[in-house]
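Pair request: fold both.
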Amino acid sequence: MAASLSLQLWQRADRHRRLLLVACQGYLVLMALYDAWVWASKAGRLPSIYLPIYGLYLVVGALEMQFVHIVWHLQQRYRLLNRLKTQRDRLKAGVKYEKIRAYSSNGNYTPNQQLLILHSLCDIHAELYDAVDAVNSAYGFQILVHTLSIFLHCIISPYFFLLNLLYPMTYGQTDPAFLSLQLMWILIHVSKLFLVVQPCSATCNEAKKTGSIVVKLLNVELQLPMKRQLEVFAMQLIHRNVEFSAFGFCNLDFPLIASIAGAVTTYLVILIQFQNSDTGSTPNNPAN
């Protein structure tokens, strides 16, 4: 009963995640259409060079959704792995996962069966680490380019938005539709950064919980074979640290967002100061 309920909750959460990814991709399509309409209304016709740009945005968005979907599934499997080790005070499999089977209907296991379950958990953790390593190898370079693109867009889009907002007489872009379009693109770039970093950070945090659980089990009075298997598991956790990286240049976690936010703020302040010196004006008070 518990296994069936957990499986239903997992499937429901997976459906919600898929709907969220489809909604994000649909939002990109709507933004591309809105952007095309704004530029076409201002220029009289849509520049043909914008069409491949819109197509590239959708392709990159699909790649990002695929990466996020895979990482979300890895997070769910680490969570199931931790549940298998923390259910009550014994190693009971409340949720079935690949090699792990319920050895008895009442949940009472012999020492040999518990040792076999623990050994299966070690194998599953090793396979999950190999899966994370495969994801880093397959998507590392793409995520690096994607992160650099988001970083540049997080500088360029707010810069031109602030120019049009603070210097309307100089740049002449006071159309609310144009300003709202720029603001929406800024929100999209920031959201795309969070969409990539959040599941990676959550998966790493879930993987780190495994070490805490193993340490707690080592402090429990167990038979010698179980102790030795837990020590082997602990050594495996030490040498296999789960991390997602952008081609090895930076780790995909929340400190990366803080670093990007600080760098973007610094560049924006410098660019606005240069703009003041070039135009000889201050915001909302243009020079004559």
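--- second member of the pair ---
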Amino acid sequence: MADRADHTPTSPLITPEPPPGPPEPGASTRPRPLFVYGALCAPALLAWALTGRAGPLCALARTRARAHGLARFSLRGRDYPAAVRREGEAGGEKPWVDGYLVAAATAGQRRILDAFEGAVGGRPSRVAVTLLEGGGSGAVVDADAHLWEGDDAALTGEPWDPEVFVRERVGVWLCAIRALGLMEEEEAAEAESEERTGV
């Protein structure tokens, strides 16, 4: 992606959404889980999006998961990917996308995640994801994911690699967040080190 300067991260704009109306009678107050497959797979960015700090995610349930019937592609001029529905293998694509199932503790946390993810993927779509770790490993869970609703010409056709994102771009995002005064310099450096070492 040589058309983008290394010092300029591309991130979706987070805009507040109006509060939702009252829940329907008998409806669960816990938000539906959200499957994330891009920038929010980086723990420091997920923690920052939800708490304003790149610290531990102790208050958030995050589980490795796989969504079948999706393909993840790089977007032209962007650091983050887009996922589209695809059945079967075509052109070397895997017929699934690995990511994380995030169980937001509150409707407010879910709105923040939707604002972050929705800037790229539009409205949440229902997906079935298979848990890849923990006591529920192998279980299939009904979740939401923000899938690409834009012009297919914006998709590069190249798979998006989360390891490359962590290695080459997370530090840039954390520096930009720090430069905007949204994170302390020491915290950004510590978070970047943890992302790179997997600590």
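Observation on the second member. Helices lie at 43-51, 107-121, 162-168, 170-179, 185-197.
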